[in-house]
């Protein structure tokens, strides 16, 4: 437990961040209500329907999740800050074990074994693995310096980061696994070589080109580049000959191997998501239906939107999963471009505030964890909104604080308020 008096500790909490959280969660609940609203529903369902009847509505269940999140916030803030550092590896190890258990005992849902059922409650461990991985990585990085450390330390950090997503992929939940790549942004802040980010970005571009451009054209292009370097400066080329040939061979191997990976490793629904991203108009009534209807909903809102509870795309269920993955459609349709811009502005303000809180930490652990939180939220926000606009593949990434789901709300709440607890202790130290 924190040792400061309640009044002093209360003053130490970063209240602007708390206010942003409350606003986003409140707007998220209104969006969930709007996405499931029916004109035929009772005017006052809380007084006219039984509890079992209310539990059929996502907005009511989300209200219960919000209530439990408040209890969770209190626990996170009164917990001694040292627990986050001391228990980081233990929580990480426990989560790895839980992911393994989930892989084998979870009931398949839409082809994925990623949900644990505890009576009437379903939880997705992959959501909370982001929190434990961020803690463990921050704890490890507090004891090293990425600018000067050897490859062994960097391989350990890579192992900490990659183990949970590998287990998540093994459970056929690829979307959540992608989020862990966002942690590279936090590592970059702590001194990771920008060359790693450039190499990963280059690999992504090459793989994308291999899907869009004929293989012989790409092989000819990269071979021409290699020969061009040789002609331009033979002495330098001969000095770096093994490296140059190695890079060329790696690139050609990626180009030739992308078809095998695409056809034999990716599942059918994953291939369809990539095909829809590349050419969304190829099958607008089939695999491109979600994205097509999502873009229609966003565009139909115009500048000011149709008004709260007036979205026709929502009322007639044109957009599947509108209270979860495609919740941003409700915002765009009912509140238009202006409402969408306000929501994006709130997210950007929250991200700025988290970075501000991270930068004022006195410990590497606190600063790194703060950047991990910002990176995870940024990834979720951009990918989810990109999904609804047809700019990113549909990978089942929830919109923080907006998408329906207890696991999602709890995981983002834990990420954010554990950072505020660590930050509150820093301010207590300054007051002593």
TrEMBL record:
Tell me the PROSITE patterns matching this sequence: FTSW_RODA_SPOVE
Keyword terms: Cell membrane, Cell shape, Cell wall biogenesis/degradation, Glycosyltransferase, Membrane, Peptidoglycan synthesis, Transferase, Transmembrane, Transmembrane helix
Q: Where in the cell is it found?
A: Membrane
The membrane-spanning stretches of this chain are 18-39, 59-79, 86-106, 155-188, 195-211, 217-233, 240-262, 335-356, 368-395, 401-422
List the Pfam families hit by this protein, alphabetically. Answer: FTSW_RODA_SPOVE
Presence of the UniProt keyword Ribonucleoprotein in the record: no
Q: How does it sit in the membrane?
A: Multi-pass membrane protein
The identity of this protein, by name, is: Cell wall polymerase
- The scientific name of the source species is Hymenobacter aranciens
Lineage of the organism: Bacteria, Pseudomonadati, Bacteroidota, Cytophagia, Cytophagales
- Report the gene name: rodA
